Amino acid sequence: MYGDKKQGLSKELAMAKYIIFDFDGTLVDSKDVVISAFNQLAQKHNFKKMKPGDIDYLRKLPVTERCKILDVPVYKLPYFAVEFYSLYKHSVKDLIMFEGIEELMEELNNRGYNLAIISSNSIDNIKEFLQKNRIDYIKQIICSNKIFGKDKEIKKFLKENKLKNSEVLYIGDEQRDIVACKKSGVKIIWVEWGFDAVEIVKQESPDYMVSVPGEILDILPR
Hints:
The chain is of the alpha/beta class.
């Protein structure tokens, strides 16, 4: 874990009832699936294709900068997202969880936390993955193709479940996850094994930064 915020913030998390996960890059290693689906879109819409070797550079940039490099119109992202996740669906069977994630979720469930997912992926893709892996303790799945609108989904989640900001903790891997959590007043743990590099997310000062799933259990009070 980066920094030494654990002691003070653990007290703030004592009221947490729900743990919300991002999906891609947080729970599942979908890098190859994302590249494949994106390159199919690139072929159709004349974007620049991604190569596996491009990822290390791109993950250090904000989403808007990535779009410029790949010739993707930012304002069309919601439209392309629908098509993208339709292509993604063909590879759901190839998705794997990051090492330690399944054990993390099982332990959180055993500790009595309610688990949910808020993602820009499609609900059908996520449900198919969970069913395939026999994960039946995720309480809610919320999806939106609004790439930069996750804060609205978090606020909606809080309202519908009659939760205070302090009763929810978000776990995600992207800069936009941190921005969304700050807008909605929810604490966030950023994970370094996902899509965004530490260089870009440090600017947003996430509440916690972890390098392996087990560190999340160390942060949360028992």
